[in-house]
Amino acid sequence: MSVYILGVESSCDDTSAAVIEGTSILSNVIASQRVHSEYGGVVPELASRAHQQNIIPVVDTALKRAKIHKNQISAIAYTNGPGLLGSLLVGSSFSKAMAFSLGVPLIEVDHLQAHVLANFLEKKGEEKEKPEFPFLCLTVSGGHTLLLKVNDYFDMEIIGRTIDDAAGEAFDKAAKILGLPYPGGPVIDRLAQTGDPKRFSFAIAHLPGLDYSFSGLKTSFLYFVRDHLKENEHFIEENVADLAASMQYAIVKSLANKVERAVKELRCRDLVIAGGVSANSGLKAAMQRIADKYHRRLFVPTIDLTTDNAAMIAVCGYFKYLQNDFSTIHSAPYSTAGITLKTLTELPK
Predict the structure, then answer these.
(1) Judging by DSSP bridges, how do beta strands 155-161 and 342-343 pair with one another?
(2) Same domain, 221 and 247
(3) Whole-model pTM?
């Protein structure tokens, strides 16, 4: 008998619903909120209001595209955190009500775990290689930067994390400084294709162990651009491709340095990237070089599974469903990262 999981994702500014059969995607619908581009970042109150408007039509569309009736759903999985509390409450409240009305199990999902498990999704009828445990995973997005040793579907250990800003936030901040639209990461990546990554040099933090820091890099970029604008008001427009390429090079180099060290120190056959920044061409190329150098396999989600989406929530729910790991309507959303992750302390500092 087929297991159909309805996934609901509402952790930030995308309202998404998906239906999977096992690990195969039947539908994955995402409604993005354009209003935030006017403010250069996500406005929490506007995000939660938009989720309220979008969630019913998005879920309805996901069921129709999957060609199943709601009564065929085996369970409903939803994002319980981390994320914006107002946004999470919309998705969790809807999921609890729908699960109760259908009499099906409810499954709470950690957003960060779901990003990792997106690498186990496949299209209907597709057979693909999947990472083998234990594997090393770099989870990198606008809100999180984590280096994980993944021992099993729900046994993930933090071996490194950012002590301040996330890598994706550094991309977005650089784009804002350059006057580029939000979200800035994809724009920086596109411009970097034609720029010189070594034209300009920016400060990279050298922390002990496997932790990251990007606040200094952001400040270095800000001051550099500000000082050159004093001398030439057309500095940005005349050098925008080189500025984008140089900033991307610095961010990717910072990420790659710690990943390479972890690959050498941990016995993991596979290397995995997850999160929105895993779509960055510079990062994928750097990770492929590391994988080739140390004879590891590299796994990267398809572009539609890198950003926040409900298919990754659903597949995380599927693996929990197999373990009868269900939640109740009393589960409360949380905003802080790492609630369900452990910290590995055996690595040298």
Answers:
(1) parallel
(2) yes
(3) 0.92
